Amino acid sequence: MKFNERQNQIMELVEKRQRVSVHTLAKTLYVSEMTVRRDLAYMEREGALRRYHGGAMAIEKDMDYSIDLRMHINEKEKRDLAKRAERYLENGQTIFLPASSTCAFLLPSLKRYEDLCVITNSVQFMLLLSKMKIRCILSGGEYVEQNKMLIGRGAEYFLRSVNSNIAFLACDGISEDGTVSVEDEHTAEIVRIGFQNSEKRIILADHTKLGRKYTYNICRTEEADDILVI
Question: Which of these, 88, 99, 170, 203, could form a disulfide with 149 (CB 3.0-4.6 Å)?
Fold first, then answer.
């Protein structure tokens, strides 16, 4: 990848601090915040860093971002995806929502509907749904604090025993050959089970997931009822 002098300076700051705001970058480099945002957008497309709402962070191959941090990565796109997904919501549905920063943005929309039931492996989702007085069925399993979710055989065994009317599923990659995949083995199995046990399957993905393929397959694009990409 080839960057200009300013973009190289941005890269150095991001790698040194791991996470830097747009405001700090603009102030340090004596340029406008709009210029910094354009640079960050280009640098993200080149795979040099990752943007979040208000800044950028370094990419480390072995880093597993927490769900709280992932909520800020491509936040606008995730909010827009949730709005587009609303057209599939109806009163009286049983909905499968796996632990995912993308799926999390759909939760506020649920309070506008009646008699819903959400099946999830996300402890975070369960707590939010309880405040909205929405019925929630939480899987068992081993608790992972970083992502506030339940995984493992306990979660998988339980989720195989329940069905849903609709599943909203996030992924890490949608390749050119139509493979929908994720990079985590435990997440893959839980999402696969939700996919198989649902009458309707909706895949949600922001544009950064396109053209990528990871280790664990979820499904083929033609097997989903709809794929929403922004």
Answer: 99
Identity (one letter) of the amino acid at 83? K
User: Which stretches of 132-190 are assigned E, i.e. beta strand?
Assistant: 135-138, 142-144, 149-151, 164-170, 173-174, 179-182
Task: Report the topology of domain 75-229.
Answer: Rossmann fold (3.40.50)
Task: Work out the number of other CB atoms within 10 angstroms of the CB of residue 63.
Answer: 11
pLDDT by residue (tens digit) across 61-110? Answer: 444 567 877 787 778 889 999 999 999 999 999 999 999 999 999 999 99
Name the CA radius of gyration of the chain, rounded.
Answer: 19
Q: Is the pTM of this model over 0.85?
A: no
pLDDT digits (tens, 9 = 90+) for 158-181: 999 999 999 999 999 999 999 999
Burial of 58 (0-12, 13-18, 19+ CB in 10 A): middle
CA–CA gap between residue 116 and residue 14 (Å, rounded): 43
Strands, DSSP E only, in the chain?
Answer: 19-21, 49-52, 55-58, 94-96, 117-120, 135-138, 142-144, 149-151, 164-170, 173-174, 179-182, 198-205, 216-220, 226-229
Reading the block at residue 143, the tokens are: 């608790």
Helices (H), 136-224: 153-159, 185-196
> Where, residue-wise, is CATH 3.40.50.1360 in the chain?
75-229
Q: Does domain 5-63 have CATH number 2.40.40.10?
A: no
